[in-house]
């Protein structure tokens, strides 16, 4: 039974039933699936891949990873050392990958294999888009764990569809996993380059509404992202992938960004908005303060993003206090936070320090439910590649374009917000044209400087990804160790930087249910063990 349960977890059958007899009874005839089920499964798979759900946003964006990389600031400082030292397991990311993210997508593959060649042709769009989504999910997972079961991990449902069931899947190396997802993305991009979407695909595709060119550019943009992810440890592979990409194949405008959006509050899932509402109030404490490092950096640069990222101190509903005029950043150091909490204003810190902008984020139901890729990130990847000689192009031009697109992206969030109150029309109507932003950037502290270009590029990526794309941001911070964060000290002890975790642990069940394969990886199963691509 342990073996069966383990296989169900890795193979994603948990999402469909709880025991083999019920599985067989429910799915005894694979040919009985109707044609619509692939379509519906695809929509669910796309949602689970891209969306920021409530639990993840609550736990990781604000309470764990957000603290590691200082994209948000929390009021409490006491016992913060536990954030850095008390990772004892996988933090639910193992099951999140094998069950939540992958089960529906791998089920589509198995149904597809039972179809006739004619039917398979009709569903090819779903299979190729599924490759892209699975690559995206797998990159996130391996960036948490490094080596992990992959090629043998999804066989449990073969008890229904036929074929071998592997109870104890081997661990693939992270290098092999990255090479595999890069191959899948290349294959999917080649398909979507000439594909077209029918009316059904347009209805079921909640990301690009059936626009195959959108999927083509998403696949290629992910190839760019992952090539740069491995570029420090495997520059030749990165160079080879980059040599196959050109600007016209990539996401280069904000209109092409990979989003899931809803029409407003009536159709919005609880997800990210509930996590934000509950992460900055008296009941659940305060986790959405504007970090001091970011605020000071943006102020020094006279960056237009300051006022759409953050706002002055607010009440529980996100309304700015009448006497609160300035955006003041909250310190990321535990000792400084403890001093503030224990100081004369300790009970009213929420009336003093700035927080995430309510109009842009907290009450904005036009904000994407999830973000897969943006044009600003694409240009930042290109800027780094060009600066390092991995790609032909002008690093400064790529960098400038990235910063401009990032500013415009966040102003779109603010301008299009459906927040019922609080919108400042001076901000909403601000001129953020290319020309105006180019003039600002030319005199800003963010002006491109070849002597510190890589630090500037990494800093802009950290600013742009922010808390909305927390997994990508943490991966990039571990890869580059930039920007240089403020010291987070408790009782004088440095908690972050070289002392911060660089991976999550394997779940405890791996040691008991997949012992031999786990033991081969056990030396890597510590929070200080760097991943393959994470070179110091």
TrEMBL record:
Keyword entries, A-Z: Lipoprotein
Signal peptide annotation: none
Listed name of the protein: SusD/RagB family nutrient-binding outer membrane lipoprotein
Source species: Parabacteroides segnis
């Amino acid at each position: 039974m342990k073996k069966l349960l383990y296989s169900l977890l890795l193979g994603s059958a948990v999402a469909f039933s709880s025991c083999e007899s019920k599985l067989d009874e429910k799915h005894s005839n694979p040919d009985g699936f109707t044609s619509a089920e692939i379509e519906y499964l695809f929509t669910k798979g796309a949602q689970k891949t891209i969306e920021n759900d409530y639990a993840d946003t609550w736990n990781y964006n604000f309470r764990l990873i957000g603290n590691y990389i200082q994209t948000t600031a929390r009021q409490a400082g006491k016992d913060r050392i536990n954030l850095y030292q008390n990772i004892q397991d996988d933090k639910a990311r193992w099951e999140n990958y094998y069950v939540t993210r992958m089960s529906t997508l791998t089920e589509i593959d198995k149904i597809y294999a039972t179809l006739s060649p004619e039917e398979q042709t009709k569903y090819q769009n779903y299979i190729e888009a599924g490759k892209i989504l699975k690559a995206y999910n797998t990159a996130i997972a391996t960036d948490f764990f490094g080596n992990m079961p992959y090629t043998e991990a999804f066989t449990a449902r073969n008890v229904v569809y036929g074929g071998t069931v592997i109870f104890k899947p081997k661990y693939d190396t992270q290098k092999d996993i990255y090479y595999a997802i890069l191959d899948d993305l290349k294959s999917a991009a080649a398909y979507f380059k000439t594909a077209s979407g029918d009316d059904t695909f347009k209805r079921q595709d909640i990301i690009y509404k059936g626009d195959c060119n959108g999927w083509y550019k998403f696949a290629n943009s992910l190839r760019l992202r992952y090539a740069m992810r491995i570029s420090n440890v495997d520059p030749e592979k990165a160079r080879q992938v980059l040599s196959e990409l050109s600007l016209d194949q990539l996401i280069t405008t904000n209109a092409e960004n990979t989003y899931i959006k809803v029409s407003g509050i009536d159709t919005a899932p609880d997800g990210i908005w509930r996590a934000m509402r509950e992460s900055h109030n008296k009941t659940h404490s305060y986790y959405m303060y504007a970090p001091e490092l970011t605020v000071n950096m943006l102020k020094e640069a006279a960056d237009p993003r300051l006022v759409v990222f953050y706002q002055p101190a607010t009440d529980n509903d996100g309304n700015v206090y009448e006497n609160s005029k300035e955006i003041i950043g909250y310190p990321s150091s535990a000792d400084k936070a403890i001093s503030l909490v224990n100081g004369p204003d300790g009970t009213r810190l929420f009336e003093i320090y700035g927080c995430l902008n309510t109009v842009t984020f907290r009450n904005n139901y036009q904000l994407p439910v999830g973000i897969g890729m943006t044009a600003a990130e694409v240009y930042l990847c290109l800027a780094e590649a060009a600066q390092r000689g991995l790609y032909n192009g002008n690093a400064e031009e790529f960098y400038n374009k990235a910063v401009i697109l990032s500013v415009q992206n966040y102003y779109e969030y603010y301008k299009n917000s459906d927040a019922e109150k609080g919108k400042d029309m001076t901000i909403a109507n601000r001129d953020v044209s290319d020309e105006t932003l180019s003039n600002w950037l030319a005199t800003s502290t963010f002006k491109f400087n070849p002597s510190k270009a890589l630090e500037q590029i990494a800093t802009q990526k950290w600013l742009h990804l922010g808390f909305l794309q927390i997994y990508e941001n943490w991966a990039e911070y571990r890869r580059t160790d930039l920007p240089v964060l403020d010291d987070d000290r408790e009782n004088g002890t440095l908690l972050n930087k070289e002392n911060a975790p660089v991976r999550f642990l394997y779940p405890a069940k791996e040691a008991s249910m997949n012992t031999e394969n786990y033991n081969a990886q056990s030396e890597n199963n510590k929070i200080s063990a760097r991943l393959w691509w994470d070179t110091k």
